[in-house]
Structures are given as C-alpha cells and as structure tokens.
Amino acid sequence: MDKMDELVSRATAAREKAYCPYSGFAVGAAVLTPDGRIFTGCNVENASYGLTNCAERTAVFKAISEGAREIVAVAVVAEGEPPPPCGACRQVLAEFGPRAEVVLASTTGERIRTSVDSLLPAAFRFKK
Ligand code: THU
Most buried among 12, 62, 83, 120, using CB within 10 Å? Predict the structure, then answer.
C-alpha cells in the first residue's frame, strides 16, 4: 500500500473515535514521522466550544509527545468535501512539517494532494 493510502486509511479509522456532539462533524487525521511511525487523531470538542481540538492537532501532539520532532506527511479525512485544515492546524503543521506532503480526503474517496507549504506560505517562525 502506498504511504499516502495507508495514512488515509489510518485517518479514516481515527475519525470513528471523534468526539463531536456539538457540531456532529467527525474528522480524522494521521501523521507520518521520518522513522515511519504513524500517529492518529480525531477532533475532541468541548461544551465551551473554543477548547475544541481539531483532529490534525490531536495527531501532531500525540506524535510530539511520543518523542517525534518532524512530520513528513499528513492525511485528513471528513465527510463531504476533502477538509481544508483550519488556520491553527496549518500553523502547528508548519512547526513540525514545513515540507510535509498533505492529502485531504472525503469519506467517499475524493482526494486533494497538497503540501503544508502550499497551505500556509510564509509561515511564522520564531528566530532567536
Ligand atoms: N475540525 C477539525 O478537526 N479539523 C479541521 O481542520 C477543521 C475543523 C473540527 C473542529 C470541530 O470539532 C469540527 O471540525 C467543526 O468545526
């Protein structure tokens, strides 16, 4: 299986775990690290709405908290149109995978291939 197919498959499975009682919009994500590990995530909503964590950030934070420091590819899956990541997720993806490949996929099989750099050109970086 192609690595992006595998990521879409893992993101699709992660989407089943979404906690989205407020929006009803389930999202799954999967990120690939340079050593071949895959970390998955789903959106986790909150009664206060603003504390909601998107699927992409859940997956990235799982990867980083397990010791990863770089992401080379990302898949995001939702119902309807292939889901464009929100601005906050783009900035978080740019922190760890500025050159990462991205596949946005709908549950019906539609896919858009892009990259973190295309999704967030000229991302903010902190230089000491
Ligand atoms: N959501 C994601 O998980 N990823 C995105 O890129 C966009 C939005 C979630 C957040 C919220 O739980 C639901 O989708 C509706 O906005």
Answer: 83
